[in-house]
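debug: dumping io for the single-chain case to check the tokenizer round-trip. Nothing else runs in this session.
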Amino acid sequence: MLKAIIGLWMMLVPLTIWAATPSQIIDKLQEAEDYLTVDPATTLSLLEQIDQAEDLPTSLFLRWHLIRLRAAVPTHQMELMEYSLEAIFTHHSHPYFIEKLPTAMSALGIWLRRHDYLNDARLSLECAYQHAQSDQQRLILTNSLALVSRQLGDYEHARRLYGRANSIADKAGITSKNGIIANNLGIIALELGNVAEAERQFRKALASYQEIDKRSGQISAGVNLLFAFIIQEQLLNYQRLYGPTSRLTESFPNETKQAMLLWVNARFMQLEGYPVSQQTKAGLKLAYMQLQDDNVRRLVFQHLAKPLGVDVQLPKPVIVRQFERSWYKAVKTCDWPKAS
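debug: decoded output
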């Protein structure tokens, strides 16, 4: 009798554990999602705590990858993005994928833009915009479309899109995205040679990010503002901002921002009278390749590389590439049912 009871108990234990697992996974996914804004690096760590994500039920599998995509953008984890994009688009007809279509297409558009598939990026983002379910999503997607226009050198169209983004934000009362808009307007001003306007926009962006305690935004706007200070040789302003920005940047897993800060601070040290050693130059050459994109490299080449005496190559004009995957045909047609 005892053996029979033990045997029955042993048969029931796996079922009990199995039944509890989906709930535990959902809780872990929710925890990972909660960290997206304040600390996406923690989001990535929490996701890795879920064993065998590839064996999850499809809806949870898709949710896991979509959360990872959202965390990979601010941490600039392009390889993670590529893997997760391939994973989710194999299920592009699944109801959960269709429900989260704007998020999936937005992530795809960002990845395509950062790999110079600019026309495909625009197409993907426009498809996402068609299926946007809220003003918040329309605002984010408009910002992403503006970034594509900026990368194509169409600054006027980019500005018009940022104007549309501001209009969406004002009408919907969305203040959390003011930092993104101001930061990107600052970058446009910098690329057009209007450093004073760039500084004004970066200050506005930093204040906005600080208000909502968004670390990745504070790093981006902070590093950009430091760059504007250095171009104008505002060394006192630089010293005041460098400490907090440096601490945030060092604790955040985004090598593109760390690389930019390395360049900016090398120029500051030079302006303070310190010679640029060969070791420093070698480190800067390596960091040059880690910068976010060719537009940023052009700015570094123009404002930092020459005075620092670092021999790096000016990026060639953008060659727009064409993206090809079997599942990308669905993106081109963009005929998913719209959310009711």
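debug: round-trip ok. DSSP finds 17 helices and no strands in the chain.
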